[in-house]
């Protein structure tokens, strides 16, 4: 009996980490069921949405529930949980070892340092300006505006706990910076600079996940992720729009 | 002729997104390459005069197939490769144009552009779905052959 509870704990922990890191819900459910089956629970039921997980060891057993309140994107942790689950299904790990390993992943800080993320965002911005048909003089303004915008988003996320405000604030900064560059004579095409600079904020992961979840038949998860993506793009658009309205 | 600048910038953009999404460090190169190939296919097709929607579908298909290959090869979830690979195809530019036209009270153009954004997002979805279909057919065929 104690063993069974430990298995449920391992499954919930794996599911929680994956959801918090932005995995598709069908993958989360699949992973939980595989782990449960590997530990001998062949009729385990799992139901994951972006905001919570339900897990039953058997149709007639009590259901475990876990709320997911914070979601971010961390592909590294998803890969780690995936490799642990592979080892479990291969029979290499006991329940307790798996629990320990998953706990380590959950506690670990695997993210790139902030300065590196900001530099990456700046390079992404500059590159997109060129890809969308901008000219090389637009590269530098977009590079700087994109970096500033991403830094502003990271900062705003720390201060304000409301979602979408950070994106709004970041795109506001991007719009202001781009207009400043154009009026100072740095850069040629305002539109191309802004498009490139907002790209690091675009919720690409949510869009692809929403589509993949819908295709896998997870309608609730797909729609809610889609709504999140639309709201985020709206926040980005609104931030730029506010600036453009005063030009 | 493929523009060298397009090759480099699309690689940097996809790999940069890999950093933002915190992809495993030893997979960043593959993320960048997947994104680069998808974007270059799209770019060539559009340059050859194909409409952007079918071009996006083919680009997304290539991204999805390459991601499945990488996922098999490195035994990592497919999401790691296709998320950053698909990013260059996301219609951010048109979405921005649509928003800008809304602000400027030009609703005709804005609604047209929004419809295009939806079509392009659907195109990406079709491309991703295609590779899933191929993968499932292959696994089914593989297990049928074994039996």
How would you characterize the overall build of this protein?
The complex is a heterodimer of chains A (247) and B (147). Chain A is built from ten helices and three strands. Chain A has 247 residues and is mainly alpha-helical. Chain A has two domains: 2-107, no CATH class; 114-245, no CATH class. In chain A, strands 1-2-3 form a three-stranded antiparallel sheet, covered by helices on one side. In chain A, helix 1 runs antiparallel to helix 2, helix 2 packs parallel to helix 3 and helix 5 crosses helix 6 (139-159). Chain B has 147 residues and is mostly helical. Chain B has one domain (4-146). Helices cover 82% and strands 0% of the residues of chain B. Chain B is built from six helices and no strands. Chain B has helices at 4-20, 28-47, 52-74, 79-86, 92-103, 107-146. In chain B, helix 1 crosses helix 2, helix 3 (52-74) runs antiparallel to helix 4 and helix 5 (92-103) runs antiparallel to helix 6. Chain B starts with a helix and ends with a helix. The interface between A and B is large, with 52 and 46 residues.
A few lines on this structure:
Chain B: It is a multi-pass membrane protein. Chain B: The chain crosses the membrane at residues 6-23, 28-46, 52-71, 78-96, 108-130. The complex is a heterodimer of chains A (247) and B (147). Chain A folds into 2 domains: 2-107, no CATH class; 114-245, no CATH class.
Rg of chain B is 17 Å
End-to-end separation of chain A in angstroms reads 68 Å
Proportion of residues in extended strands of chain B: under 5%
What is the number of independent domains of chain A?
2
**Mind describing the biggest β-sheet of chain A?**
3 strands, antiparallel
E-strand count of chain A = 3
